[in-house]
UniProtKB/TrEMBL annotation:
UniProt superkingdom: Eukaryota
UniProt topology in membrane: Single-pass type I membrane protein
Region (Disordered), start-end ranges: 641-669
Entry's Gene Ontology cellular component terms: adherens junction; catenin complex; cell surface
Name this protein carries in UniProt: Cadherin-15
Transmembrane regions: 567-589
Residues of the Cadherin domain: 10-116, 117-224, 234-339, 340-447, 462-552
Metal-binding keyword on record: yes
InterPro entries from the UniProt entry: Cadherin (IPR039808), Cadherin-like_dom (IPR002126), Cadherin-like_sf (IPR015919), Cadherin_CS (IPR020894), Cadherin_Y-type_LIR (IPR000233), Catenin-bd_sf (IPR027397)
GO terms of biological process kind: adherens junction organization; calcium-dependent cell-cell adhesion via plasma membrane cell adhesion molecules; cell migration; cell morphogenesis; cell-cell adhesion mediated by cadherin; cell-cell junction assembly; homophilic cell adhesion via plasma membrane adhesion molecules
Keywords: Calcium, Cell adhesion, Cell membrane, Cleavage on pair of basic residues, Glycoprotein, Membrane, Metal-binding, Repeat, Signal, Transmembrane, Transmembrane helix
Organism classification: Eukaryota, Metazoa, Chordata, Craniata, Vertebrata
Length: 743
């Protein structure tokens, strides 16, 4: 390290202070001087901010005298000091002295007012807050030198109203409550004008606004606007609003401290009314939740209380209007008749004769304070079984009530009765009349089946299971009682009846009986009240028994058992057979008529000469090119052929078949071809010498071509080698050619 060189005191320049905003310029700041004077003189220069660096031109130096001048006003808030470098050179530019520092300090002046950080400060405090409760802090800044009084700020409240409810800390700017008595309902917002001043309160000043909102507490109970309210509602109305009770609350609208809650304390023991709060108006809405009856009670006097949703503050005063009386008058209206018993259930015996009174079904009118007359009518009587007295409501039978019936549901008949008053407008009510049709034991049991077969040996299949049916419903049916007719006691020597279950019994032989048909009179009785019985004949065919107890002669047994078929069953069988035969005959006639109409229509519709295209399709030979099956010249020139000529021989006829019994008459003109063809068809059908497989060979015209594909396009899963065609020989002479080709 180099040893510190000793600098002459004259070249060391102390800091220079200059006041900001100095207006007399240029202003001499200092004169620098070097001890090394040269014969020709010394050249001085300075460099640094304010000279050759931004900001330019603030300082300058006389290069011969070394005087430093201030050329512009300074602002301490922009730059509080400048550090320059001073140089001393000879005339040749050689440094005479080492560069020295030149520091210029800008002295502050109180040229800046304090500034609040915001124009409006906002704070909140609950109403009724104790004195000394701090609300918020306001603060300001000053651009002047903080180490001088130019930036020493003091705060104060210039204006807050006459009450003086708030104070401010002069040093910190904190605003607090100064006295009790803050009431939101009296004044909800306080606007304070605060001031900040520098020079410890004696300098420059500035102002701002401080807005303080008082937060609501429940210090005011709700109160009814009056002590009594009167309302009116129609009877039987449910779910409707009767009216409103009005309240007033000084607390903040919409807050829990403001929202009211209503209670019905007295006057509604049945709970017919309800009261709720209208969230928008805070009023109480009274409504009906149960139907009211003017004839039972025509007015109500309710005691209603009100309070807030939020509990009241202990310091809040009690309200003298927390209770109100609500008087409700029930207005009388016309009410519909009422069937006290609905549905009405009654029982009527089956077969009750017409005109029998079965019940009196009436309604009552709730309007006891009004004189009204009720009338009745049948609204629903599907079977038209009933008649109703329109004035007295007496129900009678119109016709005999039968069972079973399609109008009964589980033995019950349902009818609807309409009751109507004579008010204006009239009102009506519907009553349901449920009539149970009681079963009467009016049918005796029937033996099923009425015939049977059994072996004639006791203990070896000599039993027959008998059953019975009854058209009556329980309890007038089973169990059935079977017994041999008491009028023929001799039957008990050869036969016995034993109960099998509630509907069946077992007939058994007691002694060996010869084969044959036996008619046994049986007495059948049901379990009704009173019981019904009937004597019936049982046809029993006794057959020859085998070892296993079965009948050996089945034909005899079946024939004899058939004697038990009833006449009704036989008539049904015969009628069904006749109906089937008639339908078959009609179907055959219809098919035949369609065939003839088709043949006639084809010939009439075609305008072409179709005679060249009548082909012999039953010839299974050369296909459509084979035109030799029939001589077509006979159709083209019928005049050349005499009726006495011998008819041509049919080539496709079997060898054993003969010629027709008589020759057919040829058509006299080409227009008679249709008749000629039909006659040929009839002759072929009626010829007894032709086998049944022979058919008419002359067909109708079928067009010049076919839209169908050739038979060769049909794909078969079998090849010709896999099939046997020898059976074609058995099909007659028409298939011999196919048999020769493929056999």
């Amino acid at each position: 390290h180099e040893a510190p060189r000793r600098v002459k005191r004259a070249w060391v320049i102390p800091p220079i202070s200059v006041s900001e905003n100095h207006k007399r310029i240029p202003h001499l700041l200092v004169q620098i001087k070097s001890d090394k004077q040269q014969p020709g003189g010394v050249i001085y220069s300075i460099k640094g901010p304010g000279v050759d660096e931004e900001p330019l031109g603030i300082f300058s130096i006389d290069k011969f005298s070394g005087k430093v001048f201030l050329n512009a006003m300074l602002d301490r808030e922009e730059n509080d000091r400048y550090r320059l470098r001073a140089f001393a050179l000879d005339l040749g530019g050689v440094t005479l002295e080492d560069p020295t520092d030149l520091e210029i300090i800008v002295v502050d002046q109180n040229d800046n007012r304090p500034l609040f950080r915001q124009d409006v400060f906002t704070g909140r405090v609950v109403e009724g807050a104790e004195p000394g409760t701090c609300v918020m802090t306001v603060d300001a800044t000053d651009a002047d030198d903080p180490d001088t009084d130019n930036a020493a700020l003091r705060y104060s409240i210039l204006e807050q109203g006459a009450a003086g409810m708030f104070s401010i800390n002069a040093t910190t700017g904190e605003i607090c409550t100064a006295r009790p008595g803050l009431d939101r309902e009296t004044m909800g917002v306080y606007n304070l004008t605060v001031q900040a001043a520098d020079m410890s309160g004696d300098g420059l000043t500035t102002t701002a606004m401080a807005v303080i909102y008082l937060e609501d507490i429940n210090d005011n109970p709700p109160e009814f606007t009056k002590e009594e309210f009167s309302m009116e509602v129609e009877e039987q109305a449910v779910g409707v609003d009767v009216g409103k009770v009005f309240v007033h609350d000084k607390d903040l609208a919409g807050s829990p401290s403001w929202l009211a809650k209503f209670t019905i304390l007295e006057g509604d023991p049945e709970g017919a009314f309800a009261i709720r709060t209208d969230p928008h108006t805070n009023d109480g809405v009274l409504s009906v939740v149960k139907p009211l009856d003017h004839e039972v009670r025509d007015r109500f006097e309710l005691t209603v209380s009100v309070q807030n949703e939020r509990p009241l503050e202990p310091s809040a005063p009690a309200s003298p209007r927390a209770l109100a009386t609500v008087r409700v008058r029930v207005r009388d209206v016309n009410e519909a008749p009422v069937f006290r018993e609905n549905p009405r259930r009654i029982s009527v015996l089956e077969g009750t004769p017409p005109g029998t009174p079965i019940t009196t079904y009436t309604a009552s009118d709730p309007d006891t304070h009004q004189i009204q007359t009720l009338s009745y009518a049948l609204l629903y009587d599907p079977a038209d079984w009933l008649q109703l007295d329109p004035h007295g409501g007496t129900v009678r039978t119109k016709r005999e009530l039968l069972h079973p019936s399609a109008f009964l549901q589980g033995g019950w008949y349902i009818a609807l009765v309409l009751a109507r008053d004579d008010a204006e407008p009239p009102l009506s009510a519907t009553g349901t009349l449920s009539i149970e049709i009681l079963e009467v034991n009016d049918h005796a049991p029937q033996l099923q089946p009425p015939a049977g077969v059994l072996c004639g040996r006791p203990g070896r299949g000599g039993t027959l299971l008998l059953g019975a049916t009854d058209d009556d419903r329980p309890p007038h049916g089973a169990p059935f009682h079977f017994q041999l007719s008491p009028q023929h006691p001799q039957l008990a020597r050869n036969w016995s009846l034993a109960r099998f279950n509630v509907t069946h019994a077992v007939l058994a032989v007691l002694a060996e009986l010869p084969e044959g048909l036996y008619s046994l009179p049986l007495l059948l009785r049901d379990s009704g009240t009173p019981p019904r019985e009937q004597q019936q004949l049982l046809n029993v065919s006794v057959c020859h028994c085998g070892r296993d107890g079965t009948c050996l002669d089945g034909a005899l047994a079946a024939a004899t058992a058939g004697a038990g078929i009833t006449l009704g069953a036989l008539m049904i069988i015969l009628g069904s057979t006749i109906l089937l035969l008639v339908l078959a005959a009609l179907g055959a006639a219809r098919v035949r008529g369609r065939r003839r109409a088709l043949r006639k229509g084809l010939l009439q519709r075609s305008r072409d000469d179709m005679r060249d295209n009548i082909l012999n399709y039953d010839e299974q030979g050369g296909g459509e090119e084979d035109q030799d099956a029939y001589d077509i010249n006979q159709l083209r020139h019928p005049e050349l052929f005499s009726p006495r000529a011998k008819p041509p021989l049919r080539r496709d006829a079997p060898l054993s078949s003969g010629t027709p019994m008589a020759p057919r008459k040829l058509p006299s003109s080409p227009s008679d071809i249709e008749d000629f063809i039909n006659e040929g068809l009839e002759a072929a059908d009626s010829d007894p010498s032709v086998p049944p497989y022979d058919t008419a060979l002359i067909y109708d015209y079928e067009g010049s071509g076919s839209v169908a594909s050739p038979l060769s396009s049909i794909v078969s899963s079998l090849t010709d080698e896999d099939q046997d065609y020898d059976y074609l020989n058995e099909w007659g002479p028409r298939f011999r050619r196919l048999a020769d080709l493929y056999g």
